[in-house]
């Protein structure tokens, strides 16, 4: 499955306030922040408890990353943008940043 197929597949699970648009974006952004916090919480617990990522902890982290992906995907959809387009724009931004960094160090 590619990102755009994923984005289409999760549309049926998009149950949240959709209007006004700012409310939808706000809801999704808050959800994204919460899920990213859960990823961080699992890593923090690994550091605190045993200093390693156990198989169980890894599974929990990957589960939370899936939730992060859902929110990122829905935010892109609310802006009528595909995840492929977001990824392409991000790569272009990173390339520009790398070029600038290389020029700065020459």
Write a structural description:
With 106 residues, the chain is an all-alpha fold. It starts with a helix and ends with a helix. α2 runs antiparallel to α3. The chain contains 4 helices and no strands.
- What profile does the largest beta sheet have? none
Q: Which spans have pLDDT < 50 for at least 5 consecutive residues?
A: none
Report the principal-axis shape.
globular
Enumerate how many helices there are, as a single number: 4
Order of helices and strands: HHHH
Helix percent reads: over 70%
Strand content: under 5%
Number of strands: 0
Q: What would you report as the Rg, rounded to the nearest angstrom?
A: 17 Å
Provide the residue-averaged pLDDT: 95
CA(first)-CA(last) distance: 41 Å
Counting helices, strands and paired strands, the structural category is mainly alpha
Task: Briefly summarize what is shown.
The chain contains four helices and no strands.
């Amino acid at each position: 499955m590619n990102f755009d197929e994923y984005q289409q597949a999760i549309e049926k699970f998009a149950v949240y306030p959709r209007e006004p648009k700012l409310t939808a974006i706000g809801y999704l952004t808050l959800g994204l922040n919460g899920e990213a916090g859960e990823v961080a919480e699992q890593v923090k617990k690994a550091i605190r408890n045993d200093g390693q990522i156990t198989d169980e902890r890894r599974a929990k982290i990957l589960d939370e990353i899936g939730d992060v992906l859902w929110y990122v995907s829905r935010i892109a959809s609310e802006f009528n943008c595909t995840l492929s387009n977001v990824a392409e724009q991000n790569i272009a931004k990173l390339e520009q940043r790398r070029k600038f960094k290389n020029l700065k160090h020459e």
